[in-house]
Amino acid sequence: MHFFAKQSVLLENLSILEKAIPVRSPLQIIKGIFVEAKNNCLTFMTNNLEMGIRADCDNVEIKEEGAVVLPEKFVDIIRQLPSEDIEIKTDGEELRTEILSKQTNFFLYGMNADEFPVITGELLGSQWESLEFSAMELKQIIKKVSFAVSQDESKHLFRGILLEIDMQKNIFCMASDTYRLAYYQKTLKKKMNIQPLRILVPGKTLIEISRIIDDSHEKVACFFRENEIIFKYRNFTFKGRLLEDKFPNFSNAFPAGFNTKILVNTRLLEKTIGRASLLVHSQNLMITLSINDKMLQVRSGSEIGRMTEELILEGKDGDDLEEILLNYRFFLDPLRVLEEDFVEIEFNGPFGPCIFNYRQELDDSLKSYRYLVLPIKIEKKDL
Fold first, then answer.
1. Which of 111-125, 166-180, 241-255, 340-354 is the most confident on average?
2. From CA 252, how far away is CA 257, in angstroms rounded?
3. Beta partners for 90?
4. With the C-alpha atoms ordered 148, 149, 154, 156, is the resulting torsion angle positive or negative?
């Protein structure tokens, strides 16, 4: 294998590919980067067996076709080289690979590319169901719920994000870690010919994709079948495994009524909670909220000090609320992803769920967001 490519082109692709290199694995081959020069195209692949990424580049000069798997240090080497043309060539049975710039010479020992779990770059046939999003649209959908995905490896069902689509082109997206539940509904702009679907996608896969795609109107194509899902964006292909869909039915999780409902400035509340977080106890991350007339009081404290702040509400309906104890992170997360100026929050007493609501209907489209978080329940003597 022998080719020339600009350092900037190599780094642009490898910096994305490295996200699918496993930190630990008994399989040495998947800890490397697959490199192939073939048919005037340079292909890179990484695959941690949960998610794989493929990049196809045609703005290179190929002198000799071939393939090799290089150690992950290859990415660091390219990152440190100057912004100029790079020559890469592999020779011999040892797969000794030279990486050359004008004044620098590296070599790495490669591995046999035949042993690498490759990701196809071919067009996907009729056996695959397909969807199409704009990059901005998909990024927004993931952002609204991904923070609620469980980080507990033992809660396998809650490590995914549930995606459903109905015949009216409405997409429903849901995630929960059992302490909170994020639910987002949106009418898709793209016309689709697809049957209603329900799939459970690993949260880690969608979060990584959302970090890579930008806020543009560029197309992101999604293909899925049985236990596989593939996203195509620009010159990248992302492959993941679908989780077995045993996601609980949360249709009745949101209460039909409320005891107290407030309307509050989203950004002001976000900043207030941020300040309160500075003095929370490190073990329970607890803040206390109280509602009296049209005033929201936020309190926090620990062994090093106390904080109190009052915020004037835009509106209030129902009873006053003496106090409710909440994990500040769980309360702050939805505020960070809401773009709207004001948010409606419902309370169901000191021990009932707290609900964030947002709904917008425009012509034939709908955008709806709901978020449920459970309060902290502790005895007064523990405060």
1. 340-354
2. 12
3. 97
4. positive
Question: Does some domain include residue 255?
Answer: no
User: Around 312, how many Cα atoms within 13 Å sit in the side-chain half-sphere?
Assistant: 1
Phi, psi of 174 (to 5 degrees): -145, 140
Alpha helices in 102-260, H assignment, sequence order: 135-145, 203-212
Q: Is 368 left (phi over 0), alpha (psi -120 to 50) or beta?
A: beta
Report, as an integer, the average pLDDT of 66-87: 97
Count of residues in the chain: 383
The answer to whether residues 51 and 206 touch, using CB atoms and an 8 Å cutoff, is: no
Same domain, 291 and 212: no
Instruction: List, in order, residues 6 or more apart from 251 with CB less than 8 Å away.
Output: none
Q: DSSP string covering 157-179, please?
A: GGGEEEEEE-TTSEEEEEEE-SS
Q: Are 373 and 326 in contact (CB under 8 A)?
A: yes
Q: Which residues contact 71 (CB under 8 A, 6 or more apart)?
A: 31, 32, 33, 108, 109, 110
pLDDT tens-digit readout, 127-161: 788 888 999 999 999 999 999 999 998 888 899 99
The mean per-residue pLDDT over the stretch 97-126 comes to 90
- Find tokens 């009052």 and name the residue: 310
Angle, CA of 160, 161 and 165, to the nearest 5°: 140
Q: What is the CATH number of the domain that holds 272?
A: 3.10.150.10
Contact predicate 163/155, CB 8 Å: no
CA separation, residue 311 to residues 180, 266, 275 (Å): 24, 11, 13
Where do we find the tokens 């509904």?
A: 185
- Residue 36 is classified by DSSP as E
| Domain span holding position 18 | 2-115
Which residue type is seen at 344?
A: E
If asked whether residues 9 and 90 sit together in one domain, one would say yes
Q: What region does 306 belong to: left with phi over 0, alpha with psi -120 to 50, or beta?
A: beta
Q: Do residue 100 and residue 137 come from a single domain? A: no
